[in-house]
Specification:
4-stranded antiparallel β-sheet; about 40% helix; 6-stranded mixed β-sheet; about 230 residues; Rossmann fold; 10 strands; alpha/beta; single chain
């Protein structure tokens, strides 16, 4: 579904990712692990067109997307939930969802997708007229995911969805991730909670200083002594 070959990307003279090869197959949850500054968010931004890579190729469903602007990439079926949520604090929950559907022209489809979002996140339904900035951290994360789902993506990019959340809310977010995947959404997950990420993922990649250091089945990496020592407190 998604294939990255020899990706090198960064910010000015800073090379955040170097010669990265990564693949996400249809129906998978793939997690990308690594410490702060390893290049995880850079990889997601390169996929979604927010950052133009220096070298390498990115293809989605067999089509080269590396030169497309972000809105064209979204229209092809990729949505990103950014690190830090970045919801619109002055807009209501429902208005945030409307922004997420800005490429959708059919009012009936927008209504149906909102109804689906509210079924998925009942708390958002209760707060549909409340301004996003007044929501709790967990509710804002739910809203960020719901907003991305308004485009009905086939591939969902999640950047640190559990960051700053209480343990119970972390569990709830990961349950939603699994539910979305079972319903047919392919997911590429960047997550510092490596234990939870490896529990829900099918496969995993580990980045170190912008380079791929390990890859394999999530269950195998969860039992790898190096991964346990570096990311699981083992």
């Amino acid at each position: 579904m998604l294939e990255i070959s020899n990706l090198t990307a960064g910010y000015g003279p800073i090379q955040a990712v170097s010669q990265l090869n990564l693949k996400v197959n249809l129906g998978e949850i793939v997690t990308l692990l690594g410490s702060n500054g390893a290049g995880k968010s850079t990889t997601l931004k390169s996929i979604s067109g927010l950052l133009k890579q220096k070298t390498g190729t990115i293809s989605f469903e067999g089509v080269d997307i590396q030169k497309l602007p972000p809105d064209r990439i979204i229209s092809r079926g990729i949505s990103q939930v950014p690190e830090g949520r970045k919801i619109f604090g002055r807009l209501t929950v429902e208005e945030n969802l409307d922004v997420g559907a800005y490429l959708v022209k059919d009012a009936k489809v927008i209504h149906e997708r909102k109804a689906h979002a509210f079924d998925l996140f009942p708390r958002l339904a209760e707060r549909r007229h409340q301004k996003g900035g007044t929501l709790s951290g967990g509710e804002q994360q739910m809203l960020a995911i719901a907003r991305a789902l308004m485009q009905a993506p086939r591939l969902l990019l999640l950047d640190e969805p559990s960051m700053g959340l209480a343990p119970l809310l972390v569990d709830a977010i990961f349950e939603i991730i699994q539910k979305l995947n079972v319903a047919g959404t392919t997911i590429l997950l960047v997550e510092q909670n490596a234990r939870m990420a490896l529990q829900v993922a099918h496969r995993a990649y580990v980045l170190a200083s912008g380079r791929l250091s390990m890859e394999g089945k999530a269950s195998d990496l969860a039992n790898n002594p190096e991964v346990q020592k570096a990311y699981l407190g083992g």
